[in-house]
Amino acid sequence: MKNPAEYLDNHVFEARRPRRELQPVVAYADAVQAIEQALADAEKYKYLLMRALRRHADDTRAMAGEAKPATVLPFYAASEQSELTQREQAA
């Protein structure tokens, strides 16, 4: 997986602003191209990650036999949970 700066390595050039030192600059079109490439790579990695997770889940189910239902624990305290359900019912 690439470092975010690596997408811009080929597109950076140096420009001198008036009365200042050279500074790295990236053209807008080059930045858009680098972002599109990064998003395409992210989609590819997302696909590979999801495939690996599915394969792992299938393997663990096969090893464990029948899958037991997961225990769901409340995220909120009981008082907050009742307030949330009341708001949902009112909406």
Termini separation (Å)? 44 Å
Please provide the count of β strands. 2
Q: Tell the overall outline.
A: elongated
Beta fraction: 5-15%
Element order: H for helix, E for strand: EEHH
| Overall mean pLDDT | 78
Provide a count of the helices: 2
What is the total domain count? 1
The biggest sheet, with number of strands, parallel, antiparallel or mixed sense and barrel status, is: 2 strands, antiparallel
Spatial ordering of strands, largest sheet: 1-2
> What share of residues is helical?
40-55%
The Cα radius of gyration reads 25 Å
Q: What low-confidence regions span 5 or more consecutive residues with pLDDT below 50?
A: none
The class by helix and strand makeup works out as mainly alpha
Key words describing this protein structure:
91 residues; mainly alpha; elongated; 11% strand; 55% helix; 2 helices; two-stranded antiparallel sheet
Polypeptide structure, described:
- The radius of gyration is 25 Å and the shape is elongated.
- The relative contact order is 0.08.
- The protein has 91 residues and is mainly alpha-helical.
- Strand 1 and strand 2 form a beta hairpin.
- The chain has 2 helices and 2 strands; from the N terminus they run E-E-H-H.
- It has one domain (4-90).
- It has helices at residues 28-64, 78-90, and strands at 12-16, 22-26.
- It has a two-stranded antiparallel sheet.
